[in-house]
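pasting for ref. prot 1 ->
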Amino acid sequence: MEIKITFGVGEASTELAAFDKALFNAGIGNYNLIKLSSIIPARSKIKIKKLNWNQKEFGYKLYVILSKNIEKEIGKEAWSGLGWIQDKTGKGIFVEHHGSSKKEVKDLINKSLKNIKKYRKEKYGKIKYKIVGIKCKGKPVCALVSAVFKSENWE
């Protein structure tokens, strides 16, 4: 299975519209999102690739792990990220974090995954991550990163 990591930021007149714009910017704005927890199945390959699926399958289900952060205070920043580890078979773990700086998000991802590795028997490789951010200049902003597993029709 190929899991795609897509990402986007958005600014709009409301928090919800900023979230929608970030989804659209990430290429997944016209899907019904079904949020998953954090487990990566065996034989998975993860590819960081900004998607352009907004006109592909309007209204379909999209299975995702989603990290988002919304900020509405002028001068503050919204940062969001996904981190992951995998073993040699491709199975692994995602973590989602958000914060007010790239460093904060990266540190949280590293702390979480280092802890998670301690009590699991699998031998995981290097911690990988994708982090994005945006500064609030007046209107609400949203930063998001999503792991896209698959889309599915309703029929």
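and prot 2 ->
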Amino acid sequence: MNEISRNHRFDVGNVHIVALSDGQVSISRKLLFPDTPEAIWDKYKDRFPGSFNENGFLINLGVFLIKSSTRTILVDTGLGPHSTWPTLWPNSEGARKGPAELMDDMKAKGIGVEEIDAVFLTHLHGDHVGWNLTKDADRWNPTFPKAQYLVHRSDWEAFTNPKFLDPVRREAAERNYLPLQELGVLQLIEDNYEVAVGLTAIHSPGHTPGHMSMLI
């Protein structure tokens, strides 16, 4: 990592955390709070400048790099180059600058895809798995070629269930996470799991059945 990353870095002991982004999107306020009058939000627009626009809440697609003494871990992989935000959130409008936001941000902060030896997926929603894979000709390959992709078993079972995979979801799954297993880079974990020295994956279900948090 070069000097640029220091402006986006937070250290916890010997663990270094770098904030990354896969761009920003807008989520319609009416979608999340359909019964709330627009005027209610006026007093918050000045309090949180940059978080509101005419289309809704402006949301950062956050990704984190966690570097310990033994591993370099990417936490989530954003929306990716293939997904479209309106598909995930109808009536919302994308605000991303370009199709390679995360890759551009990593490059700007001196982080190469080969440095990553673990991709920790907090859950399998589309805005967290978009850069898992990159297509070369007709074959999907891991975007982070030296990494094992860590997914909680409960999420994998839920998001690969045939009842869940309708045609639209299957198309997204086939380019975002299903090939991980046949590529041999998927590692299913359960309960509390030590990802590296000082880093523990904790099962925190609710948002999804296998949602995970990272304890540093």
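The domain at 3-23+61-215 is CATH 3.60.15.10 (Metallo-beta-lactamase; Chain A).
The chain has one domain: 3-23+61-215.
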